[in-house]
Amino acid sequence: MQRGKDAIGRAGVRTYRAAVRARNRGFSTLVAGSFETFGRRSVLQLPIRLDGEARIAIGSGVFVGAGSWLQTIATPEREGHLTIGDGTSIAGGCVLSSAASITVGERVLFARNVYVADHRHAFAQDGRAILDQGLEQFAPVLIGDGAWLGQNVVVGPGVRIGRGAVVGAGSVVLADVPDRSVAVGTPARVSRTLL
């Protein structure tokens, strides 16, 4: 009796997973034309928030997990641009927000809840809500091929994370991380170099 229940349960899970994959692929196919480019076999997992997708280039075989937000911001002075390279995997809950330029290389791995921005909110005006002060400190961000950003990593404006670099969970990256290095902490500092 228990074997029969287990088999039914496994069949139900397989059916559920197949339906979710089909829904996400269908959505990705429907919205692909609204992006600057959208590569073959790339999947956006619902729910997802998209803003300024005409300035977002997504390579082939890219995965963006549920709850993520891909955003480019246009102001009278500038337009953000976001590029995600082939084979990159972005787990759920990640935010990539560009008002200048964010370039994510090929086969980069983002754990959950990674935040990357090439700008920050202005906050110097006393007595005025930060929400109303606009943006500042615009500087391109580059994340090199094969890098890995751990869970809850924050990457600030003007940062370059090198090829094959690793950024430890919970780190705040405000300065460059060289190729094949491990950086950890708040602010992140290089703890070792990989061979």
- Stretches where pLDDT is under 50 for at least 5 consecutive residues are none
What distance separates the N and C termini?
A: 54 Å
The CATH architecture classification is 3 Solenoid
Categorize the overall geometry: globular
- The side-by-side strand order for the widest beta sheet comes to 2-5-8-11-16-19-21-22
CATH topology: UDP N-Acetylglucosamine Acyltransferase, domain 1
Give the tally of β-strands: 22
Counted up, domains total: 1
Secondary-structure-derived class: alpha/beta
SSE string, helices as H and strands as E:
HEEEEEEEEEEEEEEEEEEEEEE
List the SSEs and their pairings:
Layout lengths: L1 H30 L5 E2 L4 E2 L4 E3 L4 E3 L4 E2 L4 E4 L9 E3 L4 E2 L4 E4 L3 E3 L4 E2 L4 E3 L2 E2 L13 E2 L4 E3 L4 E2 L4 E2 L4 E2 L4 E2 L4 E2 L7 E4 L4 E5 L2
Parallel strand pairs: 1-4, 2-5, 3-6, 4-7, 5-8, 6-9, 7-10, 8-11, 9-12, 10-15, 11-16, 12-17, 15-18, 16-19, 17-20, 19-21
Antiparallel strand pairs: 13-14, 21-22
Describe the structure.
This protein is an alpha/beta fold. It has one domain (2-193): UDP N-Acetylglucosamine Acyltransferase, domain 1 (3 Solenoid), CATH 2.160.10. Helix content is 15%, strand content 30%. The protein has one helix and 22 strands. The chain has one helix spanning 2-31, and strands at 37-38, 43-44, 49-51, 56-58, 63-64, 69-72, 82-84, 89-90, 95-98, 102-104, 109-110, 115-117, 120-121, 135-136, 141-143, 148-149, 154-155, 160-161, 166-167, 172-173, 181-184, 189-193. The strands form four sheets. It has an eight-stranded mixed sheet. A six-stranded parallel sheet has the order 1-4-7-10-15-18, with no helix packed on it. The chain has a six-stranded parallel sheet with strand order 3-6-9-12-17-20, with no helix packed on it. The chain is globular, with a radius of gyration of 19 Å. The mean pLDDT is 95.
